[in-house]
Amino acid sequence: MKTFIFEIGMVVAIWLSLSAGSAGTQGEPQVAWSVNLNLKSISDIPKRLREPEGPGSLALAKSKESLTVGNCEEYLNAVSADFHPATNHDNEMSTEFVHDCFVLRDLQRARAPKVNGSYRFTKDSLTQLPPMLARGAREVTDAAEAAEIRGESWKQFDSDLKVIRTDSDSLNAEDKDTAYFLTLRAIGDFTGDGVEQIAVFASAHGKRDSWYHVEYLILSPTNHGTLERVTDRRAPYRVKAMEGAESH
């Protein structure tokens, strides 16, 4: 077992690494995740999914139906059944669920990659990342999706976007209306093609209003030096390469 230590703001996070089937050796590709997941090993995930998540229960709605969830297992079942936060307040309350639940789900299928990619956030990441966290009317979000399909970077889509702060595992950026935060949650091969990918939690909030949005995505390197999203753009953020496979 191998431990990496890095600092995010005032918090020191520890990455616990677990290779597929063995302890691994120095430099060997690994599956890794943040200590903030409170996870000792992949075999502990089913138990972790049933533990209370966040400060309390979360309200979700679908049409005229509503329900409350208190752990990741309940949350993942609900969003897979098309339940979503009904209000902006509920969306903010869902942050810890988005932060933890999807990556816990996907870690159950993650494998040690064949080759280390070791992607880390830098000042150039905005030219490598796809458009995300689009704010505005449906035509704006549709435009962001179309730009992503064309292979445009986040910076190409939002030319006002600039990096405010970055370290190897987190990135803060902003444009004139919105502040953004991205952090790595896990590293591994999530699609089964041997490539090292990163699981990322991303959030955005309005600088002058109460708008708030969170996303979870897995990013995979391309031959052009950029990163492409391999999860669907909307919850439950399924891994595209696993469509048709047995549900997580």
Structure write-up:
- There is one protein chain.
- The protein has 248 residues and is of the alpha+beta class.
- The protein folds into 3 domains: 2-41, no CATH class; 47-107, no CATH class; 125-242, no CATH class.
- Helix content is 20%, strand content 30%.
- It contains 6 helices and 11 strands.
- The chain has helices at residues 45-49, 72-80, 88-93, 95-107, 138-149, 154-157, and strands at 2-8, 11-18, 31-34, 58-62, 65-69, 162-167, 170-174, 178-188, 197-206, 212-221, 227-229.
- The strands form 2 sheets. Strands 1, 2, 3, 6, 7, 8, 9, 10 and 11 form a 9-stranded antiparallel sheet that branches. A two-stranded antiparallel sheet has the order 4-5.
- Strand 9 and strand 10 form a beta hairpin.
- Helix 2 crosses helix 4 (95-107).
- The two termini are 26 Å apart.
- Residues 1-25 and 242-248 have low confidence and may be disordered.
Explain the layout of strands and helices.
Blueprint: E1 2-8, E2 11-18, E3 31-34, H1 45-49, E4 58-62, E5 65-69, H2 72-80, H3 88-93, H4 95-107, H5 138-149, H6 154-157, E6 162-167, E7 170-174, E8 178-188, E9 197-206, E10 212-221, E11 227-229
Antiparallel strand pairs: 1-2, 2-3, 3-8, 4-5, 6-7, 7-8, 8-9, 9-10, 10-11
The share of residues in extended strands comes to 25-35%
Radius of gyration: 18 Å
In total, the number of strands is: 11
Structural category is alpha+beta
Number of helices: 6
Shape field: globular
Query: What is the makeup of the main sheet?
Result: 9 strands, antiparallel
* Poorly predicted spans: 1-25, 242-248
Helix and strand sequence: EEEHEEHHHHHEEEEEE
Helix content: 10-25%
Q: Which assembly state applies to the chains in this document?
A: single chain
The structural domain count equals: 3
Terminal CA distance: 26 Å
Mean pLDDT: 86
